Amino acid sequence: VQLQASGGGLVQAGGSLRLSCAASGRTSRTYIMGWFRQAPGKEREFVATSSRSGYSNLYADSVKGRFAVSRDNAKNTVYLQMNSLKPEDTAVYYCAADINSPIPTMIQEDYDYWGQGTLVTVSS
To answer: d(Cα 49, Cα 79) in Å, to the nearest integer?
Structure first.
């Protein structure tokens, strides 16, 4: 499975961006799809994750109410809508696919495939 993240860029605080992650390769199964981010000088952290159906999602406390994850299984694509962006949201955002977990998880080690990352910069 190959994951291609896109949609990052430079935005002012309070603005919005939508990230996309397209899966290719062995996509005959649907996967739990997650978003993680790594800010400069910090460890990578969980942001959001979507169940296989897209009806059960989890969010980090820091993004609840501002970010929304969704997916289009027909297009093998997952999205991260980011609203009310803050400078502390600046990071490289990674999408990841979890093949085996029965329910969405926040644990990075549970994810089997990772995209290359897309940079989001929020200016103050």
So the answer is: 10
* Average pLDDT taken over every residue of the chain: 94
What are the tens digits of pLDDT across the range 100-117?
999 999 999 999 999 999
Q: Which residues pair with 46 in a beta bridge?
A: 36
Instruction: For the beta carbon of residue 95, count every other beta carbon within 10 angstroms.
Output: 31
Instruction: Give CA separation, 61 vs 26, 48, 74, 87, 120, in Å.
Output: 32, 10, 29, 16, 19
Pairing of strands 17-24, 77-82: antiparallel
Nearest to 86 by CA among 1, 3, 15, 5: 15
Residue 79 vs residues 5, 22, 35, 42: alpha-carbon distances, Å:
9, 9, 9, 24
